[in-house]
Amino acid sequence: MYGNLLKHQKPNTKRGRSGMSTSSIREPRQKRSIEKKKRIVDAGFKLFCEKGYYNTNTAEIAKEAGVSTGIVYNYFNDKKDIFIAAVKFYSEGMTSQLYRSLMGLKEPFDMLETLDQIINIFTTSHTLSKEAHEEMMAMSHTDNDVREYFCNFELTTAEKIVEIMFQHGIKPENAHEKVHIAMGMIENFSHEVVYHKHEYMNYDVMKKEIIRIVAEMMNS
Asked: Which residues fall in a compositionally biased region of kind Basic residues (predicted)?
C-alpha cells in the first residue's frame, strides 16, 4: 500500500514550506528508515482524523510516531506533505481493493453484480474512514496541492477501470467519460448513505437505480 508513497523522487533545490531546502529531504532506502517514514504517515493519518488538519501540528505527529520533530523534517517538508502522504495512503488503499475485485472477475462478466460490488467497496471505505474522508474533502476545496492530487487520482483510477473493462470486452463509446460519470454517481451515493442519511430516501432503491443507469450507459 505504501509502494507509491515511498518511491524515490529526484531531489531539487526549492525551498520547502518549512523553510528547509527540499534537497535535504531524505527518501528512505533502508528497511528501518522506510518503517520510520511509515510510522510518521500513520501517526499523521490518525491525528488528522481525530483532530483535523488545522488542529494538528508537526510536533504532535512526531510524538505520536515516536520520533523527534527533526526526524519528521528528514522525510517531509512540513505538515501538508504528511497530509498528502496520508491522503495517498487512504485513497490507494481503497483503489487497491477495487482493482483486486475487478481483476478477480470471472467470465461470463456480470455487469449488474460487478456494479453492486463496486458500490459496496466505495460505501464500506467511506464508513470505515469517515473522519479521514471528511477532512480530505474539505482540504480538496481549500488547498491547491490536495485538489491537484485528487484530480490526478481520479484520472488514474478512471483509466485503470477502463483498461480492466476493455480486458473483459466492454468497450462503450466515450468510455473514459462514462466511467467518470459513474464514479461520480457512486461517490455521491456513498456520501448520501454515510453522511447525509435522509430518512425519506430508500437507499436500496437508489442503489438499484444507479446500477441500472450505469449498466445501460456502459452497454450503449
From this structure: 7-17
**Residue 131 near residue 50 (C-beta atoms within 8 A):** yes
Coil, strand or helix at 2: coil
Alpha carbon distance 212, 37 (integer Å): 44
Ordered DSSP codes for 147-210: HHHHHHHHHHHHHHHHHHHHHTT---TTHHHHHHHHHHHHHHHHHIIIII--TT--HHHHHHHH
Single pTM value for the model: 0.71
Residue located via cell numbers 485538489: 147
| 75 burial type by CB count under 10 A (0-12 exposed, 13-18 middle, 19+ buried) | buried
Residue 22 DSSP class: G
Which amino acid, residue 99?
Y
The 10s digit of each residue's pLDDT in 109-137 is 788 888 998 898 888 877 766 777 778 88
Q: What is the largest CA-CA distance in the chain?
A: 57
- Nearest residue to 158 (alpha-carbon basis) of 176, 137, 182: 176
Q: Read out DSSP for 25-43? A: PPPP-SHHHHHHHHHHHHH
Pairwise CA distance, residues 165 & 115, whole Å: 12
Q: Cβ–Cβ contacts within 10 Å for residue 3, how many?
A: 8
Inter-residue contact 149 to 84 (CB < 8 Å)? yes
